[in-house]
Amino acid sequence: MKHITFYLDFISPYAYLAFEKLPEALLGQSYSVTYKPILFAALLKHHGQLGPAEIAPKRDWTYRQVLWLARQQGVDLQLPASHPFNPLALLRLAVACTPQGLPNRFVCETLFKHVWHGGFEAIDAQRLQAVTQQLAPQRAPESEAVKAQLKAHTEAAIAHGVFGVPSFEVDGKLFWGLDALPMLRDYLAGDAWFTNAWEAAGAVAPGLRR
Predict the structure, then answer these.
(1) Count of Cβ atoms closer than 10 Å to residue 10 Cβ
(2) d(Cα 123, Cα 111) in Å, to the nearest integer?
(3) Domains of the chain in sequence order
(4) Of 51, 65, 182, 185, which sits most exposed with the smallest number of CB within 10 A?
(5) What is the pLDDT of residue 202?
(6) How far is it, in rounded angstroms, from Cα 87 to Cα 90?
């Protein structure tokens, strides 16, 4: 059985779509999953990038594509009232739900739907209070221990080479994005392509640096 670490941030619509489609995409494969909340903005800062929603034309395209993908794939998704937003409260709530800071699928599903169903403000105070009561976290989301654990998750992700969400790590290999699910499935199925081509692709020398 292969083990997948699923790096996610509830701010990402692609992470939500990947979360919903993962069981279907990997149907018939033997695997387990750990869901690890991380702060996407910290990845962007580390790698010197802007998020898709911070570049005006890309922002418009992202929302249009996400709505189309959701419709095509049969996933219920509505854009929140405003986006991007600060997801720290949601991430800390997820981390606070277990002593290890690794929420189960129900917790992740609840928080993804909190953001991506209904078209509401994701960080509205009353809605945050309601979802916190619903999940009944084992620890206080605003505690220093929870904050430190989320930071540690994010730093560990960066150390493993994670640069975006959703990302899936298996056997030290990273698969990035919703559209990586078929590739992830092929790897789990033992496709021989990964024996040589994976390392060869990573060995290509850069011809230009800016």
Answers:
(1) 26
(2) 11
(3) 2-202 (3.40.30.10)
(4) 182
(5) 87
(6) 5
8-state DSSP, 12: -
The tokens describing 69, both together, are 């993908």
The candidate with the shortest Cα–Cα distance to 16, out of 95, 89, 53, 69, is 69
Among residues 123, 170, 174, 153, the alpha carbon closest in space to that of 38 is found at 153
The pLDDT tens digits of the residues spanning 19-69 come to 999 999 999 999 999 999 999 999 999 999 999 999 999 999 999 999 999
- Asked whether the whole model's pTM tops 0.90, one would answer yes
Q: Tokens 């990845």, residue?
A: 43
Identity at 169, one-letter amino acid code: E
* Structure tokens given for 11: 């701010």
Place of tokens 């009353």: 126
Instruction: Give the torsion through C-alpha atoms of 174, 176, 181, 183, to 10 deg.
Output: -60
Pairing of strands 31-37, 2-8: parallel
Q: What is the DSSP string of 153-182?
A: HHHHHHHTT--SSSEEEETTEEEESGGGHH
CA atoms of 47 and 200, how far apart (whole Å): 23
